[in-house]
Structure to design on (357 residues):
């Protein structure tokens, strides 16, 4: 009997040890998400010419949700020592080969190490399903970029900033409120996507009955998508333009639907976001902690931009002497996408140099 009990105990102990080792292996496997193998374009396929003043290469990193993000890294040539770094993304529905890459390259020419990244579920970055946005995950994308930059041997980990354009301007401010490692933040021609989704343009649909009808429509779309086994796309920028298209839609068309800014991986240039992509932005507002940001924030807008009211409201939420705003004369929303005579790169560089010390 003792021999049988001893044998049973030994077997139980062995099983416990094996289970413990298996759990340790599982914990180890899940503590650091592996990077996804992605097919990346190797040719220069940007909407802007390549600069001879900086080096360029593709890099990848993983966010807190295990999604592999792809970025273009721009490093100034013939610069030694640890550099101040900036992570850049946007506009909402665009890819790094468009506006964010242009910003990244120009700031690298001014001495910063920069990355322009595709957010989760878009462009060359991973994540399924494709073309879906999330106020939480896309805010996290900025912090994941800071994770990556902070361990680069040629980056000063105490001098990392972020820059968001259009819808990623609001997400950048959201990230700054959430991540004190972000020493300085720029929001250029920004949108507050939660306000746009829940209230419509210029808050024209800010009524519970209107929101309820929107939610009903997206709920029905969810059922239809699940039955079909695929997500319906909302369509990118309208093409051809209707006769009664608002001026700002014409401005979007002039960028995304022409050789000026068209890119095949850009949702705005092609078939747009999933129809249900706005759902979380209605119930999870951005900028709720903007007033608690302690590091510096710069907001940039054109004086003729339809989106200027987003920037003014965001600026009013910031507190203290760590905020600044630049209003660019005679500039609309998309002028700050690629108009080199309008984008205040020197002032942006000065802001990052002064505020990241």
């Amino acid at each position: 009997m003792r021999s049988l009990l001893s044998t049973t105990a030994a077997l139980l102990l062995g099983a416990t040890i094996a289970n413990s080792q298996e759990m340790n292996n599982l914990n180890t496997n899940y503590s650091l998400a592996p990077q996804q193998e992605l097919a990346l374009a190797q040719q220069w396929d940007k909407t802007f010419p390549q600069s001879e003043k900086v080096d360029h290469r593709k890099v990848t990193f993983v966010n807190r949700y295990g999604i592999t993000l792809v970025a273009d890294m721009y490093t100034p040539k013939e610069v030694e020592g640890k550099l101040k770094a900036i992570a850049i993304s946007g506009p909402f529905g665009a890819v790094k080969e468009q506006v964010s890459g242009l910003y990244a390259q120009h700031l690298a020419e001014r001495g910063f190490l920069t990355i322009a990244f595709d957010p989760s579920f878009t462009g060359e970055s991973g994540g399924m399903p494709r073309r879906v946005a999330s106020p939480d995950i896309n805010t996290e994308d900025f912090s994941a970029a800071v994770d990556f930059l902070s361990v680069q041997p040629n980056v000063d980990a105490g001098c990392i900033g972020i820059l968001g354009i259009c819808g990623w301007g609001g997400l950048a401010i959201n990230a700054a409120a959430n991540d004190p490692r972000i020493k300085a933040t720029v929001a250029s021609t920004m949108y507050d996507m939660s306000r746009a989704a829940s209230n419509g343009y210029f808050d024209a649909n800010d009524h519970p009955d209107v929101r309820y009808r929107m939610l009903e429509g997206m709920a029905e779309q969810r059922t239809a998508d699940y039955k079909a086994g695929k997500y319906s796309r909302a369509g990118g920028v309208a093409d051809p333009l209707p006769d009664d298209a608002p001026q700002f839609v014409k401005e979007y068309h002039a960028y995304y639907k022409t050789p000026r800014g068209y890119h095949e991986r850009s949702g705005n240039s092609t078939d747009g976001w999933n129809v249900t992509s706005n759902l979380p932005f209605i119930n999870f507002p951005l900028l709720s902690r903007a007033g608690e940001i302690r590091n510096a924030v710069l907001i940039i807008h054109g004086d003729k931009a339809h989106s200027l009211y987003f920037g003014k409201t965001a600026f009013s939420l910031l507190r203290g002497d760590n905020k600044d705003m630049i209003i660019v004369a005679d500039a609309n929303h998309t002028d700050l996408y690629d108009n080199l005579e309008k984008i205040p790169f020197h002032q942006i560089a000065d802001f990052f140099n002064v505020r990241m010390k």
Observations:
- Confidence is low (pLDDT under 50) at residues 7-13.
- The CA atoms of residues 18 and 24 lie 10 Å apart.
- The radius of gyration is 23 Å.
